[in-house]
Amino acid sequence: MNTPSELRYTKEHEWIRIEGNIATIGITDFAQGELGDIVFVDVDTVGDELAENDVFGSVEAVKTVSDLFLPLPGKVAEFNEELESQPELLNTDPYGNGWIIKLELAEDVDASELLTAEQYQESLG
């Protein structure tokens, strides 16, 4: 299982790349493997200010639908529109072209609760 060390993670199986006040967010390799073939990504929160742990969208796989939880508070700035025609990018390139949203972080965000790659892997057991 691929878990890039430069990213941070949540127990809900999302990854976060923070660059300045912008966080790029997607689902982990583990999550896409558990979901199976992803057929649809729904994010209708672009422009919305959301709190930590709010649902910002959902991922639909052949057998299930899974909510996506915001790991940090902020404003949803962008949705990866490539996912509208190619939702399978979450399966084939979860840490690259399969990113889901870009989040404009709220001021004074505390990202210290996010897991390192090692902590995330330990949480999987």
From TrEMBL:
<keyword id="KW-0450">Lipoyl</keyword>
<comment type="subunit">
    <text>The glycine cleavage system is composed of four proteins: P, T, L and H.</text>
</comment>
<dbReference type="InterPro" id="IPR017453">
    <property type="entry name" value="GCV_H_sub"/>
</dbReference>
<dbReference type="InterPro" id="IPR002930">
    <property type="entry name" value="GCV_H"/>
</dbReference>
<dbReference type="Pfam" id="PF01597">
    <property type="entry name" value="GCV_H"/>
</dbReference>
<protein>
    <recommendedName>
        <fullName>Glycine cleavage system H protein</fullName>
    </recommendedName>
</protein>
<dbReference type="InterPro" id="IPR003016">
    <property type="entry name" value="2-oxoA_DH_lipoyl-BS"/>
</dbReference>
<dbReference type="InterPro" id="IPR000089">
    <property type="entry name" value="Biotin_lipoyl"/>
</dbReference>
<feature type="domain" description="Lipoyl-binding">
    <location>
        <begin position="22"/>
        <end position="104"/>
    </location>
</feature>
<dbReference type="InterPro" id="IPR011053">
    <property type="entry name" value="Single_hybrid_motif"/>
</dbReference>
<feature type="modified residue" description="N6-lipoyllysine">
    <location>
        <position position="63"/>
    </location>
</feature>
<comment type="function">
    <text>The glycine cleavage system catalyzes the degradation of glycine. The H protein shuttles the methylamine group of glycine from the P protein to the T protein.</text>
</comment>
<comment type="similarity">
    <text>Belongs to the GcvH family.</text>
</comment>
<dbReference type="InterPro" id="IPR033753">
    <property type="entry name" value="GCV_H/Fam206"/>
</dbReference>
